[in-house]
Specification:
The complex is a heterodimer of chains A (about 220) and B (about 450). Chain A has about 220 residues and is of the alpha/beta class. Chain A contains 7 helices and 10 strands. In chain A, the strands form 2 sheets. In chain A, strands 1, 2, 3, 5 and 6 form a 5-stranded antiparallel beta sheet that branches. Chain A has a 5-stranded parallel beta sheet with strand order 7-8-9-4-10, sandwiched between helices. Classes of the chains: A alpha/beta (about 220), B alpha+beta (about 450).
Chain lengths: ~220, ~450
């Protein structure tokens, strides 16, 4: 009797997945299509997507974050099927629930480091949280650099600012593209730990896409492209 | 952080770009506002100054010069006319008022005008302090003169011969006494020192006795030694006679005129006929006067009649084509500046396409990005316009100081006019068109490609 109850509840309680893709497929015009394996990621869990160059890693990240519309298949983020959202809703959804850490560092150059963080908190809905900015900056060692122009920051500082920009708005899921590609072994480990710690503090799921084998020891959830 | 603030920060982050896009706009706006203000104010002032005068009668010469010198007081007079001959016009049935004016002297660059009290009435000028002149060598000062020279009632004014500020010789034996200060009227009267006709005659009567004729300008009143009392009496006498005979004189114009001419030739022997004025300012009672009298005077007398309205219109017609040309050029520059704003925005969008793509990943929709560009375009247009407007006013102020020292005219530096608001509208419209054209690429932006390109 008890057993059957548990069995029934497993059937009827729907488990909400943070990231769920099915039959994802993308083709650039005139090129061979990329077929991506299905992803099922439980909230709060992290995932490493490993793959050599040219298998469509960045393409997958752009698909998952709705920057690029999929040719076929569905993507659900936090139980929202983003593949069916229009552009405007997608922009809003991404701004609110997704954090992006790019391989290259993109900032608004006319603003200083602190203002870049402030800007990230301003859209799509303004949630100016100075305390959060200060805490995050302190944990990432950026406190004394917030007033600096972004172009004046060192490579390492730019990377940490980039991580801060991916997390400042407490996203449900953070996608990071090759976050360790130009780091030595010591710093590679530090940055991955930093990302994982910050994602845990924000209760965000972290998805890292990389070719860097050094990262694999840090993740138990892995998908190989 | 607001979008407007971001747009502002983006803009000032590249000051050189900003200056470049503003330059043409500022240039065109300042040019249009300056030229429009200048021509409007000049036109307005001219019209105000010529309003009380329908016709000027003076010595033969250029009619424009006659108007400029006798009505607007910005040119040398054409010469003198015989008072007796001029006064016949006064009695014509079509003539309302006819005010004789005489001048040729100045005080520190301001003209001393000899005339009658009716002159003030015609310009609706009233006294601020003191009284009008009652005797010879009493003078009242226009408001600008009094203010500029710091004149007070009771001051002695020594006129010097000629109209230039540097002056000719001083009439030191005949100082004027300031008896009244006039209220500002916004007309040429503000720039004058006004006395009676006799003062002018007497001042020159004295000098001529001491100096050779050749020393003087041609506009000088030719005078002989005589005392004012007799002079005036004689005048009155003449006047009465003229009134009496008036109708027949004018009707038999030709004969009369020949007679007058002969009289004029022999004038040196007769004190009364000798009196001269520079010109006669006529206001008609009937519009028919405008049709008949100028022609009659020009054809049948040694004098000429000029119509200020016509002459000023002719002058403004000449100036007007210049104004139109400059405005045309300025508007062309405005269009080019619109184009330069377009290019600048396009360049900005291209240069910042990674930032714009980044903002898309932050959740800013294409519409918000469009606002960002729109803010920038409108800010450029508005800032450029305001800067240009102030520059135009500054130029007007400089011009005002210049023409005030040269011609005694003052330009008012006022707030924005309706036409300038229309110009602002046009500027903003051009900016919006430029934004619309430049921002089409925002809608076509492939953020995935931009963010994966190196």
């Amino acid at each position: 009797m008890q057993l059957s109850c548990i069995y029934i509840s497993i059937i009827f309680v729907k488990i909400i997945l943070m990231v769920k893709t099915a039959g994802l497929n993308f083709a650039y015009p005139g090129e061979k299509a990329f077929h991506f394996p299905d992803i099922d990621l439980v909230p709060g869990e992290h995932l490493l997507i490993l793959g050599p160059s040219g298998v469509g890693k960045t393409t997958l990240l752009h698909l998952l974050s709705g920057i690029l519309p999929a040719s076929k298949g569905t993507i659900c983020i936090n139980d929202v099927e983003i593949t069916s959202l229009n552009r405007q809703r997608m922009d809003q959804f991404r701004g609110t629930h997704i954090g992006l850490i790019f391989q290259q560092y993109y900032f608004v150059k006319s603003l200083n480091a602190g203002e870049n963080l402030q800007l990230r908190q301003s859209f799509p809905k303004s949630l100016q949280d100075k305390e959060r900015r200060q805490q995050l900056a302190a944990r990432l060692g950026l406190t004394e650099h917030l007033k600096k122009k972004v172009t004046q920051l060192s490579q390492g500082q730019q990377q940490r600012l980039s991580i801060a920009l991916g997390l400042i708005h407490k996203p449900k899921v953070v996608f990071a593209d090759e976050p360790t590609s130009n780091l030595d072994d010591k710093n590679c480990g530090k940055v991955i730990q930093l990302l994982k710690d910050e994602a845990d503090i924000c209760e965000s799921s972290l998805v890292i896409i990389t070719h860097d084998q050094r990262v694999s020891q840090h993740f138990k959830n892995q998908i190989v492209l | 952080m607001k979008l407007g603030y971001l747009a502002y920060r983006n803009m000032i982050s590249k000051p050189l770009n900003l200056v470049l896009s503003l330059l043409l706009l500022v240039l065109s706006v300042s040019l249009v506002t300056y030229v429009l203000q200048l021509s409007n104010q000049l036109n307005g002032q001219l019209n105000k100054n010529i309003a009380p005068v329908d016709m000027v009668v003076g010595a033969k010469g250029s009619p424009l010069q006659l108007v400029l010198s006798s009505v607007l007081h910005i040119d040398a007079p054409t010469g003198n006319i015989n008072l007796k001959e001029a006064e016949q016009i006064k009695n014509h049935p079509f003539v309302g008022t006819a005010i004789p004016v005489s001048y040729g002297d100045s005080y520190k660059g301001y003209r001393i005008l000899g005339t009658e009290l009716a002159y003030f009435e015609s310009y609706n000028v009233v006294l601020d302090r003191g009284r009008f002149f009652e005797r010879s060598f009493e003078v009242v000062a226009g408001s600008s003169v009094a203010k500029k020279l710091g004149l007070q009632i009771g001051d002695k004014i020594v006129g010097s011969h000629g109209l230039a500020a540097s002056g000719g010789e001083a009439h030191e034996d005949h100082p004027y006494t300031l008896v009244g200060l006039l209220e500002p009227s916004g007309t040429v009267v503000d720039q004058l020192l006004v006395s009676n006709l006799e003062s002018i005659w007497d001042a020159h009567a004295h000098t001529d006795g001491e100096h050779d004729q050749e020393d003087h300008d041609e506009d000088e009143v030719v005078e002989h030694d005589h005392d004012d009392h007799g002079d005036k009496e004689h005048n009155h006498h003449e006047h009465g006679e003229e009134e009496h005979d008036h109708e027949s004189h004018v009707d038999e114009g030709d004969d009369h005129q020949e007679h007058e001419d002969q009289e004029h030739d022999h004038a040196h022997e007769d004190d009364g006929d000798e009196l001269e004025i520079t010109s006669l300012l006529v206001k008609f009672k009937s519009p028919l006067g405008l049709v008949q009298l100028p022609r009659f005077i020009n054809e049948n007398t040694t004098m000429q009649a000029a119509l200020p309205g016509f002459e000023v219109q002719r002058l403004m017609g000449l100036l007007g084509s210049g104004v139109k040309t400059i405005n045309g050029i300025a508007l062309a520059i405005l269009l080019v500046s619109g184009f330069s704003i377009f290019i600048s925005l396009l360049k900005t969008i291209r240069e910042r396409r990674q930032e714009l793509a980044l903002l898309r990943t932050y959740g800013l929709g294409t519409r918000k990005l469009l606002y960002l560009v729109l803010f920038e375009g409108l800010f450029l247009a508005l800032f450029g316009f305001v800067l240009g407007w102030f520059l135009g006013r500054l130029a007007l102020l400089l011009t005002s100081t210049y023409i005030e020292s040269g011609y005694g005219y003052v330009l008012s530096i006022g707030g924005p006019t309706v036409i300038e608001f229309a110009l602002l509208g046009a500027t903003l419209f051009i900016a919006i068109v430029a934004v619309t054209l430049a921002s089409t690429s925002i809608f076509k932006m492939n953020i995935s490609k931009i963010l994966s390109d190196d």
